[in-house]
Design a protein that fits this description.
By secondary structure, this protein is mainly alpha-helical. It has one domain. About 70% of the residues lie in helices and about 0% in strands. The chain is built from 14 helices and no strands. The radius of gyration is 19 Å and the shape is globular. About 50% of the residues are buried.
Length: about 300
Amino acid sequence: MLSNRLLTALAPAIWGTTYYVTTEYLPPDRPLLAGLLRALPAGVLLVLITRRLPTGDWWWRSLILGALNIGAFLPLLFLAAYRLPGGVAATVGAIQPLFVAGLSAALLGQRMTLRVALAAVAGVAGVSLLVLRANAALDWLGVAAALGGAAVMAAGVVLSKRWPSPAPLPASTGWQLVWGGLLLVPVTLVVEGLPATITARNWAGYAYLGLIGAALSYSLWFRGIRLLKATDVTFLGLLSPVVATLVGWLALGQDLTVLQVLGAVVVLASLVVAQKQVSQKQGGKTDADHGVRGGGSRRQSSGDRSAPARA
């Protein structure tokens, strides 16, 4: 349904505001601390509200998903951001839909269509027009980190689809945030340490990233994973650089060129093409009607709207 896609799209749209909040509200040169304070307090809050412990296989599955979606993804993301110009990092990361399509074929039984592959390539091209600069330099460690970040995030999306959580969405989201945040604690303390002071403005930024940028957005993201195909969800992630560019133009007075506008149009066109439902001959139903074939995933009923959010 269109409403499910719009709600899911809110997550990457929110993530697109992270750059503005980080540069304007947070202490400089503390990206890992930002990731830690974004994930762990939000996860603890959701766990305390729901008071639900993982059961059965969800103990180790939530740990793996939290490690992929939070604990591994954020350090790789920040390493790429440090080693590469932002445009290069975003362009390399935009290859994630191709990773998801490949993993979905292997683990979920979803066929990779030519339409999806071409839409993924167009998405990379659109993001490069949107954020890539002519003087961008390559650092191969940074490129490897960006590719690794896209790969672990893709694995997190596909495995979240394969392993639907038995718990309500807030609890599932909370536990993934907790596990990922706990994994970030030693990395943050060793690599960055703690700042000497944290101002009220800094705390306001951390509160936004935790409550809106993690608790709300990840809940919407995982809800979408449960209700939509994995490839549909991951293409929506391309909205993040579009929103980041728009916020930079509106709030920071950054220039917006014709090529950037063209890039945004290409990205949005790739989203529309990728989301298009193709009719199946089995009773005239779409892929979404049948759900995911194989791979151990099961269709959620209309009454169970909880998605494997970064649980």
